[in-house]
Amino acid sequence: MLYLSTRGNYDPVSASTAILLGMVPSGGLFVPETIPLLDTERLLALQGRGYTEVAQQVIAPYLGDYEEEEIAGALARAYNHGRFSHPLIAPLHRLDDGLYLLELWHGPTAAFKDMALQLMPHLLSRALAKENRRDELVILVATSGDTGKAALEGFGNIPGIRVIVFYPYGGVSRIQELQMTTTSAANTGVVAVRGNFDDCQSAVKALFADRDLKEELRRKGFSLSSANSINWGRLLPQVAYYFWAWLQLREKEGPDACPFNIVVPTGNFGNILAAWYAWQMGLPVKKLLCASNENKVLTDFFHSGLYDSNREFRRTSSPSMDILISGNLERLLFAVSGNDAGRTRGWMESLGGTGAFQVDAKTRRALDGLIYAGWAGEKETMAAIRETFARYNYLLDTHTAVALSVYHRYKEATADPAPAIIAATASPFKFSASVLAALKEEDPPQRQADEFSLLEELSRLSGMPIHPALRDLQHKPVHHRTVCARAEMGSVLLELLEKQ
Question: How far apart are CA 468 and CA 466, in angstroms?
């Protein structure tokens, strides 16, 4: 299995090289040259297996230069009961007839990013060994809230690797910020950037493409890689949990589990793209539902074929979805255009230059019917949290509430009887202020509110224990206080590497 550049500007590389590089050095993303098919008989044979066994069957075909024992060992180290609080790792919770939540937040940082970022460091460390690399690898991360802490947790104290996280200053919750800034591992750095997530993500991509910076880093003994979902090693582990979800669904629904719908709260398009890869591999998916919040650039794109990020950026109660430039959409566009690197490159250059692009009629037809795209506003999101708790005694986080709202709208419009699985992407306690306000039918408190007293109040009101990753977080010492402008990120990166 080799990996191609979505822009046709790099020779094909092995899986380990694609994971090491993170993204194509001259711009673009790595994608597998083919998508392996798991036939029905092989899928059904996975029934009753544990999570790591299922994941091995799903991801191994993509890791052609890894030995089976290496993959099995990495999975065993990543998904164990010391790291994940639930024995099923990602359990499927029945909400209603034919409606289920895939709980992806039982890992060490209470968010779905743990599902990938507990495994990725082990794949990356093996890749370093395979290529006999002696330089130190610097993982650059742009985060809208959750990826940062998950990367810090996964890569902290890994020999030969350093990790630097950039997050939007004032654009994450206080809990998310403290999860990152209290990180104590010596090989970590955390920087707040004045701007929004798109500023962070675009600047990180620019750092990867900065030849002068990379040459200076090389002289100092460093090279760059990424832990965002633009890195295939980050995206691939997410493919596995959709197969795991379906196998649990079959145990509950029997033959009626085919076909089924997947609903994903979406910002950077990585999580739903993983579901698309699972679908292409043979998972019996009927429809993918792409759920956006008020930053609904993806919804508009799938309805019109025009991707236009030139719009008001809205800060919402679901900050991990407050994104106007969805980095992983490039991979889908490359695939549906028939691996046309020229067209993909043109769209991405237009997006970088003007903030917008329009796909051609042929690509538009290929996208039609592939994904149902919808969005939910703040009032709908709050209502979904409140009504779900009142009806099912189940507490949603804000992102999952967006997905549930979009699903209900889809069901009303289509009367689709197929069962559905919603990706529940975070513990509700990560967004306690908004969740509590929804339950009490009040306006959310300002960011300056004591989020930790709200944690306690939410626990009392819901009867749920506070996630262990969040308990007593306010009492931990802060180790990272750097704030910079977007234009200063390169110089700050060099300073941090000198200090570590």
Answer: 6
pTM for the model stands at: 0.91
Active site residue 287: no
C-alpha 188/C-alpha 152 separation (Å) is 7
- Report the Cα–Cα distance between both ends of the chain, in Å, rounded: 37
The pLDDT tens digits for 220-259 are 999 988 887 889 999 999 999 999 999 999 999 988 888 9
Catalytic residue among 113, 130, 149, 287: 113
| DSSP-based helix, strand, coil % in the chain, nearest 5 | 50, 15, 35
% the chain with pLDDT above 90: 77
Q: What string of DSSP letters covers 151-217? A: HHHHHTT-TTEEEEEEEETTSS-HHHHHHHHT---TTEEEEEEES-HHHHHHHHHHHHH-HHHHHHH
Cα(439)–Cα(388) distance, integer angstroms: 10
- Break the chain into its structural domains and give their ranges: 92-107+233-447+456-464
- H or E segment at 270? helix 270-280
350-363 exposure pattern, b = at least 16 Cβ within 10 A, e = fewer: ebeeeebbebeeeb
HSE on the CB side for 208, CA within 13 Å? Answer: 29
Q: What's the CATH class of domain 92-107+233-447+456-464?
A: alpha beta
Sequential DSSP letters for 438-461? HHHT-PPPPTTS-HHHHHHHHHHH
**Residue matched to tokens 């590389």:** 13
**Residue 357 phi, psi (nearest 5):** -155, 155
The amino acid that residue 265 corresponds to is P
Write out pLDDT tens, residues 264-291: 999 899 999 999 999 999 999 999 999 9
The residue to which tokens 């180790």 are assigned: 479
**CA 66 – CA 61 distance, rounded (Å):** 10
**Helix orientation angle between 146-155 and 120-130, rounded to the nearest 10 degrees:** 50
Helix (H, G, I), strand (E, B) or coil at 95: strand
Place 447 in a pLDDT band, splitting at 50, 70 and 90.
Answer: low
CB-neighbour burial class of residue 33 (10 A; exposed 0-12, middle 13-18, buried 19+): exposed
Tokens, residue 11: 């020779």
